[in-house]
Amino acid sequence: MSKELKNIAKSYIHEYLKYNNPNLKINKTQLFECPFKHIHKDDIGKPTCKVYPQFGYKVTCYNSACGELGNIFDIFRRLEPDMKHLKDEEIADYLSHLLDIKQDEDVDKLLDVYYNSGFHLIPLCANDPSKTDKENAKLQKSPIQGESWKKNICHDLRKWKEWVDAGLGLGLVGGKISNVLLLDIDSDVTYEKMKDRINDTSAQDTKQGKHFLWEYDSDFDDINHCNFRKQGYEMEIRANNAYIVVAPTVVEGYIRTWNGKKITKMPKELKKFLLDLVKKESKKEEKKESDGIREAIENENFNIEDGLRGLDGNCNDTWITLGGILRKKMSPKKVEWALQTFNKLLADPMDYHQIKSMCYQLSKYDNFDKKDLAKEILEHLSLESVRFANAFEMEKSLGHTKKEIESALDYLLKEEKVVKVGRNFKALNKIEWETDFMSIGKPLGFEVPYFGKFNKFDDGSMIIIGGRSGTGKTHLAMNIIKKFVDMGINPKLLTTEAGSKFGMIGANLGLKIDDYFFKRVADATNVEFDDDSVTIIDWLKPPNSDYSKLDTIMENLNNQLVKHRGLLIALVQIRKDGTFFAPDLFDFYASLVATYNWTQKYNSQTKETVADSTNTYFQTSKMRDSKVGVQWIKIPTKFDKDTKIISLRTGE
Ligand SMILES: [Zn+2]
Fold first, then answer.
1. What is the pLDDT of residue 102?
2. Helix ranges (DSSP H) in 490-606
């Protein structure tokens, strides 16, 4: 029995419950009547159960007599006591017959087919149980990185499997990159109109219609995606830089399936038909002028018959003024190009050399905006390939004059946004977050996850959590972020680790884009925080593991908190014996210092001590404002390997 069937069976929980209770109703908020209602103590006749798809389709009942009911197999064993000794796989097999679960969704096989077809895929957002079906359908079709989804395009089986395992959907990117053309037919009526034009080719069923695939054809090079709704066809052609949602993604409870046919060449007549529709559509959209404009842009030709007049005699001054205005924001080279371009508008254009000499004169009126150039310099310095540069190098790569570069650098130095090391400049990693952070009241207006019960925290607090290598520091960091997000706070994660492990763990916990901000930094010690923000560093380490530098680093972080307030939670590595590298330093600066540990189990048969990663705990060594009267306490936690959730044993 395949592992895939077991997972698919879990997603049939609603169907299974309906099979047991044909009258079962699932309301708008996804709540339904508990199958074990009879054991409820104070039942008020309202639905109490809900399925959590992102957590293995587990069911939770809000009545205190029930609590977590488990997944489809757990519920099956309770409802069918005779079969309670069956293994999950055996129950899955039993249910596949009972509920007519299709078995052809062998994810590995499917991904192999995608791989062998040369497809490029992207990850899409997971289902969110707190949203309505309609909102979810939209969400499940959205790429996890929003606008910047193209960054994730890849042809990598292992990555695709990671995405599927993390509960994410898959999008097939069309066009040259995957060598496919995609036609998305959204209604039966349109399909009826189109079916005679469509040949035998690879196709996928969706809830409303079908996706057809054909081999890519260079006649579609200019097409991104084009909708034919206005022309009476509920369909879209998708080519370059457009994607469709593909199996095994489930949208609105519908598992997409392929017909298993080969991708063929698009029939000539269909191609002509579609390209004609595209032409009509683009004419409709852009009217007739658009082609002319496109051509004019390409040829840098305004196509004006007479050209602009009225500057006669004043042309020189007007052009120098215009150049001066442009120079506020643009480099001399760009200004020259702009002036040459505008020149073509004139009825009597000036000659090339005249404009060239104007550009020389322009330096007299030097009043460029150094803030804009400063921004450009910072962007330049934050490039992985640059990091350090001297004024001369920047002059060459940014196309500005030496004087301008020096003036902008001077400004950046005053603003403490760069440091000078010898002749080189280095950016001080002031992070440009993508969204404004919600303002947090002072003092710290929220409960700190895991520790808020035991210690009081002021605005501007620092928490240090130590963990041994490989004991799930990143899992802890993402759980902390999830808890903040649940409180309506969008924390900022500075990660010093390579790879995207945190993203996968976050997705598994149900975190979405915009829930938190992250920045990968080589060295988290010289960053600048934002005001009143929750910052999490995973993990804090001195450059080159030079722990003698730690005092400077801690002082810097503390200065950041004094200046910007908010909360900093830094995860640090500890020695194998569980001690900190610089305990006094951490105790001095932090409001709370703790280690995160696995419990050790003794196996009496093998006489070995083994780690129990489920029963985890925090051990505090310092609590500045303890609510429990002591500094040293053990806080038991539980790590659930399936859901990746770390919860307080005391209940939270
Ligand atoms: Zn119940």
1. 57
2. 501-508, 550-564, 583-589
Q: Which residue type does 425 have?
A: F
For the stretch 126-177, pLDDT in tens is 777 677 777 777 777 888 766 677 878 888 766 787 788 777 889 999 999 9
Dihedral sign, Cα of residue 272, residue 276, residue 278, residue 279: positive
CA–CA distance, 146 with 120 (Å, rounded to integer): 17
CA dist 126 and 170 (Å) reads: 10
Q: How far apart are CA 175 and CA 240, in angstroms?
A: 4
Handedness of CA 140, 144, 150, 152 (dihedral sign): negative
Whether the full predicted model's pTM is greater than 0.70, yes or no, is: no
Q: Residue 246, Cβ neighbours under 10 Å: how many?
A: 22
Rounded to the nearest angstrom, the distance between the alpha carbon of 196 and the centre of ligand 1 is 53
DSSP tag of 198: -
382/287 Cα distance (integer angstroms): 43
Q: How far apart are CA 498 and CA 488, in angstroms?
A: 28
Q: Are strands 169-173 and 243-246 parallel, antiparallel or unpaired?
A: antiparallel
| Predicted confidence (pLDDT) at residue 92 exceeds the cutoff of 90 | no
CA of 646 to the centre of ligand 1 (A): 24
At residue 311, what is the residue type?
L
Q: What is the largest CA-CA distance in the chain?
A: 102
Question: Strand runs (DSSP E) across 431-525, as ranges?
Answer: 461-467, 492-495, 517-520
pLDDT at 366: 61
The residue to which tokens 């500890």 are assigned:
574
How many C-beta atoms lie closer than 10 Å to residue 306's C-beta?
6
Measured distance CA(327)–CA(344) in Å, rounded: 20
Q: How far, in Å, is the centroid of ligand 1 from the Cα of 26?
A: 15
Q: Are 75 and 57 in contact (CB under 8 A)?
A: no
Summarised one tens digit per residue, pLDDT across range 181-235 is 999 998 889 999 998 999 999 999 888 789 999 999 999 988 888 888 888 899 9
Residue 101 Cα to ligand 1 middle (Å)? 26
- Centre of ligand 1 to C-alpha 53, Å, is 18
Distance 83 CA to ligand 1 centre (A): 21
When pLDDT is cut at 50, 70 and 90, the band that residue 439 belongs to is very low
Tokens standing for residue 215:
């081999």
Residue 54 to residue 545: CA distance in whole angstroms: 38
Report residue 604's pLDDT band, with 50, 70 and 90 as the boundaries: low
Near ion ligand 1, which residues have CB within 5 Å?
Answer: 34, 36, 61, 63, 66
Q: What's the 85 CA to ligand 1 centre distance in angstroms?
A: 23
More confident position, 440 or 36 = 36
pLDDT band at 438 (very low <50, low <70, confident <90, very high): very low
User: How far lies 558's CA from each of 500, 525, 626, in Å?
Assistant: 28, 11, 21
How large is the C-alpha radius of gyration of the chain? 31
| Terminal Cα-to-Cα distance of the chain (whole angstroms) | 38
Q: How far is the CA of 497 from the centre of ligand 1 (A)?
A: 43
Length of the chain: 652
